[in-house]
Design a protein that fits this description.
Number of strands: 9
Radius of gyration: 19 Å
Pfam families: Bac_luciferase
Helix content: 40-55%
Strand order of the largest sheet: 1-2-3-4-5-6-7-9
Number of helices: 11
Protein name: Luciferase-like monooxygenase
Organism: Paraglaciecola hydrolytica
InterPro entries: Bact_Lucif_Oxidored (IPR050766), CmoO-like (IPR019949), Luciferase-like_dom (IPR011251), Luciferase-like_sf (IPR036661)
Family: To bacterial alkanal monooxygenase alpha and beta chains.
Strand content: 5-15%
Largest sheet: 8 strands, parallel, barrel
């Protein structure tokens, strides 16, 4: 098999546009999932974030059900559920229910960040004094609830028990890579916003991987931003929405997803420009020819098993067009 014969998937935050509503954001996610399925994307994941005026996927399991109900065979899941925010039993029940409703199509990606600021994390009733050591223990507890009934087991997830929903670990650090390897789970690295440890994390994960009942060998996906359009100039214009979003994050400004602008000059400072360009260094932005070359270079350099892309494009028609154009790029590479 060619090293470029890899699946293509989507990560979605159901962006709430500045001139739109939450209802429209969730409907746009549904439309994108339908188009992705038509173009042979393997999976679409939704991410848990809280208190962000530009993100509609906070009730992630509900958003997953909304997407799964509108599609037929594409896998749907979380990218991810921030497990420290939740009881493992509740997550097992939610995803056991999703698996019962949409058999064989549900993924459960897990992260350990709060997906919010600390005040919001406290409002989620998260134990802010919990040790990092609680995260592996909570994952194992979750595996117990989703796996076959064990002798002497007293607490059951119903639905959930024996649903065997596949788990993924998500991360942007060497810690997450080491944990995924030790637990024998597939690993997805967030290179779309944390590029610095990409290669080291993949190396650590593959080197230390221990086979498990779920995974006989290591499996790595990596996240990328993607904005594909007819021309490089048009794609760069659309990408300015993402650049504005990252400026707002850096400045602590909480607002809906912004419309694209003709130029970022005057909007960002030189340090902000340098920081954001570094953070988004792997973004696939441009025409199909430009993006195809960037994608081929990324896959050759990382040898990832799957690419998962975020397409935060303001206009839904441009977003759907980008989904289709990127699929054509991957098909040509494959």
């Amino acid at each position: 098999m060619s090293p470029l014969m890899i699946p293509l998937s989507l990560l979605d935050l159901a962006p709430i546009c500045s001139d739109g509503s939450i209802t429209q954001a969730l409907d746009n996610s549904r439309r994108m999932a339908i188009v992705a399925e038509q173009h042979a994307y393997k999976r679409i994941w939704l991410a848990e974030h809280h208190g962000m005026l530009g993100v509609a996927s906070s009730a992630t399991s509900l958003a997953i059900s909304h997407i799964a109900a509108a599609t037929q065979h594409i896998r749907v899941g979380s990218g991810g559920i921030m497990l420290p925010n939740h009881s493992p039993l509740v997550i097992a029940e939610q995803f056991g229910t999703l698996e019962a409703l949409y058999p064989g199509r549900i993924d459960l990606g897990l992260g350990r960040a709060p997906g919010s600021d600390m005040a919001t994390a406290n409002a989620l009733r998260r134990d802010m004094n919990a040790s990092v050591d609680d995260y592996p223990r909570n994952i194992r507890e979750l595996q117990t609830y989703l796996g076959p009934q064990q002798a002497g087991q007293k607490i059951f997830a119903v639905p959930g028990q024996n649903s065997n929903v596949p788990l993924w670990l998500l991360g942007s650090s060497l810690y997450s890579a080491q944990l995924a390897a030790s637990m024998g789970l597939p690993y997805s690295f967030a290179s779309h916003f944390a590029p610095d440890q990409l290669h080291d994390a993949i190396s650590v994960y593959r080197h230390h991987f221990q086979a498990s009942a779920q995974c006989a060998k290591p499996f790595v996906s990596a996240g990328l931003m993607a904005v594909v359009a007819q021309t490089d100039e048009q794609a760069q214009f659309l990408f300015s929405s993402v650049q504005q979003q990252f400026i707002n994050l850096r400045r602590g400004v909480n607002q809906p997803f912004q419309a694209p602008i003709d130029s970022m000059n005057g909007l960002w400072s030189e340090p902000e420009r340098v920081m954001i360009n570094h953070t988004l260094q792997y973004a696939l932005v441009g025409s199909q020819a430009t993006v195809k070359a960037k994608l081929a270079n990324f896959v050759a350099a990382t040898k990832v098993d799957e690419v998962i892309v975020s397409m935060p494009i303001y206009d839904i028609d441009a977003r759907l067009n980008s989904v289709a154009l990127l699929a054509e790029c991957m098909a040509q590479l494959n």
